[in-house]
Write a structure and sequence with these properties.
Radius of gyration: 20 Å
Strand order of the largest sheet: 11-10-9-12-13
Bound molecules: adenosine-5'-diphosphate, magnesium ion
Distance between the termini: 25 Å
CATH superfamily of the largest domain: ATP-grasp fold, B domain
Largest sheet: 5 strands, antiparallel
Structural class: alpha+beta
Shape: globular
Strand content: 15-25%
Number of helices: 11
Low-confidence stretches: 227-232
CATH architecture of the largest domain: 2-Layer Sandwich
Mean pLDDT: 93
Helix content: 25-40%
Length: 313
């Protein structure tokens, strides 16, 4: 007998991130169909198979030997678009996912405070960009993800002295120089949004460096416990932030206006008491231990949202 469940095609590159997504979808009665996007063919004359599509392409694909994934994803999204397919986190969302510069632009457009950010291509340009800043600066990959290429310099002079270390561009030869915001307290806040609505917020401790990917796979790679409520030294912990916070309202408006169906948006509170937003993750992964602690199964909620809104169409 034919399988009558609605298919959700998962456009992916990292197989390790699939299990929680598939579990959430199947629990809500969907058929999850992994669709590899780092090699393969795209035939414009061929209509995509029936069902919904979910963009799970990671901006750090090149670190897993999938250096062609991001560019191929753009082609796949164009094909799906042309055939009128429904895509979760489609082309517009993907544009933000792979560019910290474009994240900055869209955050600013929505009246959200960001750390000053400047894109640079080329070693000389990096120096020139750094000289636009007074105090401490971070250099990051423009196509970031999991803390790629992030280095801290006390000022542009230190960057100049260490230019060989500083110049470590992303796969497109791009970096951003960004104002470093010394956190008032040793954590950043990550707000998870689903369908343009607040889902939950969490804190990530900044004491362990710049790699704050919440996925369980990343924790296993780092070999450190993610949530350890007993000794208070948790990497991830619940945040008291709620849906009626004015910054959350702006995040919601941004997601609704800009096609970000699923997003994890990060901000840091500086010593000046202001909250600076610096990262939009469209390919969000939820931390299972934190989810159990707060009673939210992120991928299950995502699947419920898909069932309520998209599958109903
Ligand atoms: N401007 C900044 N000031 C202070 N800390 C920052 C800033 N930008 C990033 N960080 C720290 O570095 C981490 C990784 O940076 P992020 O921009 O989120 O990169 P990625 O996209 O690789 O996750 C952040 O979660 C935060 O702890
Ligand atoms: Mg981040």
């Amino acid at each position: 007998m034919a399988d009558e469940r609605t298919a959700v095609h998962l456009l992916y590159e990292n197989p390790d991130w699939l299990p929680p997504v598939i579990a959430g979808l199947e629990a809500e009665g969907f058929r999850a169909v992994p669709w590899e996007v780092w090699r393969g063919v795209v035939d414009p004359a061929e209509a995509p198979p029936a069902g919904l599509w979910w963009n799970r392409m990671s901006p750090s694909a090149h670190t897993r030997g999938h250096g062609d994934g991001v560019a191929m994803m753009r082609e796949v999204l164009a094909w799906l678009d042309a055939h009128g397919a429904t895509v979760i986190n489609g082309a517009r969302a993907f544009g933000f996912e792979v560019s910290k510069l474009q994240q900055d632009l869209v955050l600013r457009r929505h009246g959200i405070l960001t750390p000053r950010t400047v894109l640079a291509v080329g070693r000389e340009a990096l120096l020139g960009a750094a000289r636009r800043f007074e105090g401490p600066i971070l250099v990051k990959h423009n196509q970031g993800g999991k803390g790629l290429g992030i280095a801290l310099f006390q000022d542009h002079r230190e960057l100049e002295a260490r230019l060989d270390t500083a110049w470590d561009p992303d796969p497109n030869g791009q970096v951003v120089v960004q104002q470093y915001i010394q956190p008032a307290e040793p954590f950043i806040t990550r707000v998870e949004l689903l369908g343009g609505r607040f889902l939950f917020a969490m804190r990530s401790a900044t004491t362990g460096g710049f790699e704050l990917c919440p996925s369980d796979v990343c924790q296993a790679e780092k070999k450190q416990p993610d949530v350890c409520p007993a000794d208070g030294a948790a990497t991830f912990s619940p945040s008291p932030l709620t849906a009626d916070d004015p910054l959350v309202k702006r995040f919601e408006a941004l997601c609704q206006a800009e096609g970000l169906d699923l997003a994890g948006i990060e901000f840091v509170e500086g010593a000046d008491g202001r909250r600076y937003t610096y990262d939009i993750n469209a390919n969000t992964n939820y931390n299972a231990a934190l989810g159990r602690q707060i009673g939210v199964d992120g991928m299950r909620e995502a699947a419920r949202w898909i069932r309520r809104t998209l599958a109903a169409r």
